[in-house]
Specification:
250 residues, alpha/beta, TIM Barrel, eight-stranded parallel beta barrel, 10 helices, 12 strands
Length: 250
């Protein structure tokens, strides 16, 4: 049985970790270097850093932040936000990322997935999908949830897989920051449609929610608020999961 992963997510804007609800109402949540190292100490399997203002502001990622985080981090690091080309991906990998997450730019030009996967390997290419339930189907959103695309999220996940993506980072806009639990129908629909690892994101409030996401087919979960607010540590979540028979790395 494959080990399930617990991945703290740090949404970063202008060098600070921020948190909001449904990508809005942003508040400061700390320093990304300090938090990354603390979550590593707690037993995080990986860290995901998403520069949430890079795409809306039309700029690239802040590479110096990535370098500073990498200096003390021994676990895998995924970086996303503002990646529009294979050259952008290369710059982040050279700064210290292990994987690069692409979202809006991949929707605009799906060949970006092919380019990154063929140049750096599928294991480096994470396709992030922000989705919301609209008129009975899960619609792909872009630009930090600002714009609908008309694309079906499940179909887009399948296309991303076919183009060489190594993982799907699946965020429910409806649940993001609400702490009402992961979107299980969304998670299940995508997990059943692809054979790639699916990372569920958006809505965790307690360890039971994490267990539900795994039961729905997620291979890993992203969480932010419960960790940033100090309600639970990564270790707390893993202990609960182990007690429920979920295989996690201690």
């Amino acid at each position: 049985m494959l080990t399930k992963r617990i991945i703290p997510c740090l949404d970063v804007s202008h060098g600070r970790v921020v948190k909001g609800i449904r990508f809005q109402g942003i508040r400061d949540a700390g320093d990304p270097v300090t938090l990354s190292l603390e979550y590593q100490r707690q037993g995080a399997d990986e860290i995901v850093i998403l520069d949430i203002s890079a795409t809306p502001e039309g700029r690239g990622h802040q590479h110096e932040t990535v370098r500073k985080i990498r200096e003390g981090l021994a676990i895998p690091l995924t970086i996303g936000g503002g990646v529009r080309s294979a050259a952008d991906a290369q710059a982040l990998l050279e700064a210290g990322a292990d994987k690069v997450s692409i979202n809006s730019a991949a929707v605009a030009d799906p060949s970006l997935i092919d380019a990154i996967a063929s140049r750096f390997g599928s294991q480096c290419c994470v396709v992030a999908i922000d989705a919301a339930l609209r008129d009975g189907k899960f619609e792909v959103l872009v630009r930090g949830g600002r714009d609908g695309t008309g694309k079906d999220a499940v179909e887009w996940a399948v296309e991303a897989q076919e183009r060489g993506a190594g993982e799907i980072l699946l965020t429910s806009w409806d649940r993001d920051g609400t702490r009402s639990g992961y979107d299980l129908p969304l998670t299940r629909a995508v997990a059943e449609a692809v054979h790639l690892p699916v990372i569920a994101s958006g809505g965790a409030d307690h360890a039971g929610h994490v267990a539900e996401a795994f039961a729905a087919g997620a291979d890993a979960v992203l969480a932010a608020s419960i960790f940033h607010d100090g309600d639970l540590s990564v270790g707390d979540v893993k202990l609960h999961l182990m007690e429920r028979g979920v295989v996690v790395r201690p």
